[in-house]
């Protein structure tokens, strides 16, 4: 029987649903992060699949449990947003000497596969619940929270690997190199790079609220600072280079008003997290990071690209759903770790949550960036450093929220981290969770 | 600008055939009285699959813009940097299309200006696509 | 005669990511023969400086990739060359009045011929 995707009925994408039925009954404990690399060198032992297995082992070890304690796995199968192989591309020579194979030849290379993981980790002998949280690891997190709250699994792995093959990520590759366009590419034949999705609404935002792109510099510099504190991040491991305001302002435009440093760097990496019931979390080694609620928004875009109006409307809705489901208020959040890859996404999420708002509803985030948004300050913005500070994964933010609540983040905020939020990816297409040090 | 030529399929052929006749035809959902573009299998609002193709006025306003300096599309690299604007259709401003705004200097896009559709033949196959020019 | 060579880093130089075909030895030879050399890359200028220093190469300039016109203005020369691995490198070089070589074309060090032919 094929492994199912998250049922739509599990989504909390409406208002007036009340407090989440699983509030405080689910927690994250063990966290495992693989080493990172800029690109895959085509060796089996450095493949996305190998990194995934390494992350799983670390997460189980970190939780202080046995592999046989795991009874569920939720995995995000897509492992890139860029260049990938044809699904039928055979694996490289020597692959079958290192890994057991499933029918899908790209499993472990350019696609995550639960059966492949289980075949290559026979010690995960008690997995009964399997589900794909597709598209984004945020979906895997919210799916796992719901699965545990509903009693489908008790101790579950949340998993995502990212691959980055040799060569350039998008430019002049595949469909973009042709003089014809088919499928979904044909409506984007105007040559917009991916960051345009963020740049169009950002341009509208700046006009509406009288802001400028230069005001992003403070945020991007802080992201890199936070990322360089993380020993598991790509930049700290491979390019420990600090960006300056001058570097950012001199950045080459990709799609003005998005410059090269508003774009995140594709990398190879994997994350696994152990989530469990509040009861069982007491027996795990790390302090539990409880889930108080989760929520989803999905695109309602009628046109070729989202507008400012749709991003403001849907990120506002996300904020309202999270506060309703958790019973918290904006002032209860000690930090926010919303998505940043592209960096221009971030302020839309932040304002939807009314994070650090002094009564402002919209148009205040870029001003907030000019204040103390550091981990030492009163309003820690994105303490994970996000994709901008660590490389593209869409999960640094979730990982760090768990570690912050557990009090062991490498970029730990200085005030007590009692409640925080993480979510990805776009302001109109997002899965978010509120994390807490207390189940109550 | 030498755009890639879109290859119509059975699903979106009504849109592309209309372009070749210099008409702008997009999907309309009678259940919720909404237009949408690009073509999709169902209404993004109510998931109705019985969508009609309707001709629209071909008038709109410039909603936003970017200036592309690093396109992934090989055929457009020689023309960098170039404008790309989003055009909000007069019938329903939530429905947007892209435009290179032929004739508008780079970085001088008049946000909010009225535009009207024109149809541009793409080099590889001759398939026409909608483009937009500033009115007045 | 003064000749200036700008190297892209990633995909062009052997210590780029991905590595390119232009070796440290080729760059060092050009410098020793009197070429003005430096990098125009998407790496931060501070990171570019650190990379040259790590390979013990004296450099004349570092700049962001789109700042080739600025390099041309700062360094009067008889001939300007940029070596890179992307169509964008080629476009930016040509717009700035630089000759352009793909990274693989640079492997044979064609700039050394300029010394014999006065850049012809």
Shape assignment of chain C? globular
Structural class of chain B: mainly beta
Largest beta-sheet characterization of chain B: 5 strands, antiparallel
Total beta strand runs of chain C? 5
Distance between the termini of chain B: 22 Å
Most extensive chain contact? Answer: A-B, 48 and 50 residues
**Strand order across the largest sheet of chain B:** 7-6-5-8-9
Largest sheet of chain C: 5 strands, parallel
> What's the number of helices of chain B?
1
* DSSP summary, beta strand count of chain B: 9
> Termini of chain C, distance in Å?
11 Å
Helix content of chain B: under 10%
Beta-strand content estimate of chain C: 15-25%
Q: What is the mean predicted local confidence, pLDDT of chain B?
A: 96
Number of domains of chain B: 1
Radius of gyration of chain B, in angstroms, nearest whole number:
15 Å
How is this structure best described in words?
The complex is a heterotrimer of chains A (440), B (136) and C (120). Chain A is of the alpha/beta class and 440 residues long. Chain A has a domain at 8-168 and 266-281: Peroxisomal Thiolase, Chain A, domain 1 (3-Layer(aba) Sandwich), CATH 3.40.47. Chain A is built from 14 helices and 12 strands. In chain A, helix 10 (308-326) crosses helix 11 (346-352). The two termini of chain A are 39 Å apart. Chain B is mostly beta strands. Chain B has one helix at 13-20; strands spanning 5-6, 25-29, 34-36, 52-55, 59-68, 82-89, 96-99, 114-121, 128-134. In chain B, the strands form 2 sheets. In chain B, strands 7-6-5-8-9 form a 5-stranded antiparallel beta sheet. The N and C termini of chain C lie close together (11 Å). With 120 residues, chain C is an alpha/beta fold. Chain C has helices at residues 24-32, 45-54, 68-74, 87-95, 103-106, 112-117; strands at 3-7, 36-41, 61-64, 79-84, 99-102. The mean pLDDT of chain C is 95. Chains in contact: A-B, A-C, B-C. Chains A and C meet through loops of A and helix 2 of C.
